[in-house]
Design brief:
The chain is an all-beta fold and 112 residues long. It is built from no helices and 10 strands. The chain has a single domain, classed as Immunoglobulin-like (Sandwich), CATH 2.60.40. It is globular.
């Protein structure tokens, strides 16, 4: 059985005076399985949430913005959901290439 290790980086920020907390960490999944990562904010940020993936030696890559909109070129096995204070990143059909650190962050439309 192949196993993919997914690291999480708990992001915290003061935007909207909200603190972001990710759980769980770390996450491991069998190739072909499903990974769910949760991000909770201390107060509502509406849908202004983004998910990023970062691999060693590379800059963060935007996966999802506005909580559920897939960024250009991102495989459909990645999906996002939630609003207000509770958000989820789901990776379905996990592949070895998905091994990375994942961040949630407050997102502004201007960040595109």
């Amino acid at each position: 059985m192949s196993v993919v290790s997914v690291s999480l980086f708990p992001s915290s920020g003061a935007t909207f005076a909200a603190v972001l907390t990710q759980t769980p960490s770390p996450v491991s999944a069998a190739v072909g399985g499903t990974v769910t990562i949760k991000c909770q904010t201390s107060q509502s940020i509406y849908s202004y949430l983004a998910w990023y993936q970062q691999k060693p030696g590379q800059p963060p890559k935007l996966l999802i913005y506005e909580a559920s909109t897939l960024a250009s070129g991102v495989p459909s096995r990645f999906s996002g959901s939630g609003s207000g204070t509770q958000f989820t990143l789901t990776i379905s059909g996990v592949q070895c290439d998905d091994a990375a650190t994942y961040y949630c962050a407050v997102f502004y439309p201007a960040d595109l």
